[in-house]
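Marked as duplicate of an earlier ticket. Keeping the data here for the record.
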Amino acid sequence: MLMREPAPGRERRQAAEDLLPSPVPVRFVAEDGTAADPPAGYAVPEDARLVEAYRRMVAGRRFDRQATALTKQGRLAVYPSSRGQEACQIGGVLALREADWLFPTYRDSMALVSRGMDPAEVLTLLQGGWHCGYDPAATRVAPQCTPLATQTLHAVGMAEALRRKGEDAVVMAFIGDGGTSEGDFHEALNYAAVRRAPVVFLVQNNQYAISVPLAKQTAAPALAYKGIGYGVRSEQVDGNDLVAVLSVLTTAVRHARAGDGPWLVEAHTYRMDPHTNADDPTRYRDGGEVERWESADPVARLETYLRGRGLLDDEQVTVAHQAAEEFAARVREAMNADSEPAPLEIFEHVFAEPTPQLREQRALLAAELSASED
């Protein structure tokens, strides 16, 4: 495949109105699970994909609950829950092909296990391991990123590399609303637009950057509008409506793959649980707010919608939940296995060439370990 070079400036400029997001978030399914008026320009995903999405969302929520429990048992050092964001996590994964790349944040473990990765490897970073736990090249998933927005630059770099190599692959970068306040995010948008890199930015706007509400982060009418100034096609979607998320992201990925440039998609959703197990959300939000968002639960909404269309019945729901329980049991078994740490590994990969101080410290620790064995 020949490398697609960006078109000359005037030819590739788009009219501002072509970049604008919908005035209200794209929605296919109302909060009560009934079908809404279909939005123009987007198609309902295939029935089989929607049923598969439901299974993955049920499994994803059970995984999230299990991981949260593991922190209380001391098996994980920290866990950022994504309960309430299942439609974003699963919709993002289902919009990609196996050859596409995913650049996640620390809150996207659910997406990674839905992509088929080993849960124990996914949770290695959150367990306190010294590496990300999996092989990014083999899985085409970058390490989960804790610093805000730095992965967006890496994602654009990867997308540009794929374009130059002529690979038929797209990159999707997950980012939280707080990350859109970082300079890295804006630099990534600008470079992606100039190079027409095949990358899609999915902003999971869960309303809070730790304890800072969206109103204190930006005065923009929506985060989706942040792409316009850079020439990035932008859209906003109801992030608790799996049908809408999957439809919009499938469209965005298709456009990026065709060489039509990057997309920025803002998914309006909500983080139901604390920022991490160390957070107390009652200090900055009230229970009434949480209850209002619980009425828009993405898993229940999709289940009601699929039942209404005759695509889901009691038996299928039971099977999905049983499979999720079995999956959670495998996660527990894997994470409850005690590993034998190698203390000297702490000195590996700190620098390409160890410093004299590191060599001295390693020698001291090695001597202490040897003495303790005598």
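See parent ticket for discussion. The longest strand covers residues 199-205.
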